[in-house]
Amino acid sequence: MIAASFGAGGMNMLDSQSRDLIVGHGSHRYKVDVHWGRLDPGRVPVKDCHEMAVDSQGRIVLLTNHIRNNIIIYSKKGKLLQSWGTEYPGAHGLTLMNEGGEDMLYITDTERHEVIKTTIDGRVLMVLPYPAEVDAYEDASQYLPTETAIAANGDIYIADGYGQQCILHYNARGELLNAFGGKGIEEDKFENAHGICIDTRSGKPELLITARQQNKLKRFSPEGKWLANIDLPGAYICRPVIKGEHVYLATIWSGDGAENTGFISILDKNNRLISAPGGNQPIYHQGNLSPMYQQLQLFKHPHDVCIDEDENLYVAQWNAGHLYPFKLIRI
Amino acid sequence: MKAKHRGHSSILFLQKIALAVCSIVALWGCSTNKTFSQENDIRLSAPIPQYSSTLFEDSFCLSFAPGYPNSHIHFTTDGNMPSRKSAIFTGKQCFTQSIHLKAISFHPHLQASEMVEIDFLQVKRLEKVKAISLLQEPSDSYPGGGASSLFDLQKGSLNFREKAWMGFDEKVVEIQLEFEKPQKLSQLSLSTLQDHGSWIFLPEKMEVISQDGSVLSQWPIPQLAEAKRLAYLHVSLDEIETQSLRIRITNADVIPDWHPGAGHRPWLFIDEVILK
To answer: Which residues 148-207 of chain A have a CB within 8 Å of chain B?
Structure first.
């Protein structure tokens, strides 16, 4: 009755010619190097690889919730350069901002219920605790911040994506200026406000915020006014990352939200999905995107993507069997 | 000797040329450079079936979401494992009888997908049920649509988060049925979900208790991870006649040792009860 039902993988049935896998569509296609970030797990272990960023020296900074080394810094070739961090058990969100010529890291920690600002070497500069002054919060346990975005003037936006779904706006000194959003299906609310970034592509800053369970990106003014939605049906997007005119989004699940169905989403300057490495070809009918789903079992749960100066991608994955990041080389 | 020497030099020269060319090409990604994932390292994702419900009264239609370029979905309805020689599924196909569908995506260079396996069952809507109750409440996280939804012919998909599914982390789940008048019954089927990756297992046993006595069916605990699938668990009732029925579903005590959740109680997900 309970029959195993894995298909015939059947390598003997395949064409014997070995060819490089190419993923993605149109202008954004890639070869895949799954070995890129691989390290000795006995020396430099990872748990979930949550987020990545490129620093001003072109190094790739990875955030993991493994407390032996929360931060792992790679060269672009995947060589280990440095690791540090033992005090971030819920390390989840990583934003890198160059402030006055010095790279700063903003780490959200869902177990500490805090956001921590550090230097690139790990010296703690500021800790933002749970926003007790906001009515939505009775205690710290309700605050599970998933992401930060830093404006040009140093203002800090925090998405409480696993908590009360509020977006918290602080100035650079850590003083709370505003709180908006919250949990709900209304246009200005969120079901899993997982990621946030500052979008300056139009010439004036806006916020791009993911509503992951709703398969939407939501555009807000910096003051917290809802502006518009960008629908990405079937794509459970983690955080938006802008490079040039494009928005890149690790897509942790797809289709009906089943496990191990992730891929990468890439939007053009008009916020239309143009390439989905690991996913199906994006198709629009009368301006609406057809539902997205995984077509190749390349990724399990992509959680973040970062882009280097050559427009190669680095993909960090959650719940992927302690996998180190992959590199996708643009062709 | 001279010719042989000259030939050897030529081969060395050609090898050097080939090495140089390959080194240059490798800068952009030589086709034989195994730094990159090869097509035959990667598996196609399972085909995605599209249908309104796996329970139907007269007929149902089935299609699949478009697959990876140059892939084909091969399928069977006779219980056999699909191969590249099995029929290719195209477009939309409609059926008027129960089928046991198995489908796999194949591609000339990529590995074949996992198999999708679905029972489409023809059923008659039971209108004589007077009362349905659950003696144990589902989890607050997966409440489903309540006891009455077990007879609404609305099936859940492979996504356990769908509202059609009720999730239980109890050892025993009991469903009590009362009919308006005595019913002759030959089979009871419980519609369940298997999703080992999400700690959801099929139950260990199911007992159907009626005024005519009780019938027990048991299923083996899986020894290895199995693919996610919708499953119907059948109990033959041998033409009993009864006005009330209790279904006692017993969950495994703990998740087996081979699973990352070993030692914890598995989840039980149900969405329909079908009586014949």
So the answer is: none
> Whole domain around residue B98: which residue ranges?
39-121
Residues 125-184 of chain B whose Cβ lies under 8 A from any Cβ of chain A: 157-159, 161-162
Residue ranges in chain A modelled with pLDDT below 70: 1-16
- Is residue A7 in a domain? no
Q: Which residue of A has its CA nearest to B111?
A: A9
Q: How far is the C-alpha of A141 from the C-alpha of A107, rounded, in Å?
A: 17
Range of the domain at A302: 20-330
Residues in chain B predicted with pLDDT less than 50, given as ranges, are 1-33
How many whole angstroms separate alpha carbon A275 and alpha carbon A264? Answer: 8
The predicted pLDDT at position B260 comes to 84
Which residue on chain B is closest to A254 by alpha carbon? B159
Q: Which two tokens stand for residue A295?
A: 């077509």
Q: Are residues B204 and B258 in the same domain?
A: yes
Does residue A40 sit within a domain?
A: yes
Chain-chain contact of B197 with A260 (C-beta, under 8 angstroms)? yes
Determine, yes or no, domain membership for B261: yes
Hey, what amino acid is at A300?
A: K
B151 and B256 share one domain: yes
Q: Which residue of B has its CA nearest to A18?
A: B38
Shortest Cα distance, chain A CAs vs residue B160, angstroms: 8
Overall number of domains in chain B: 2
Q: Report the C-alpha gap between B40 and A179 in whole angstroms.
A: 50
How many separate domains does chain A show? 1
Buried b (16+ CB within 10 A) or exposed e, B151-164: bebbbbbbbbbbeb
Write down the ipTM of this complex. 0.91
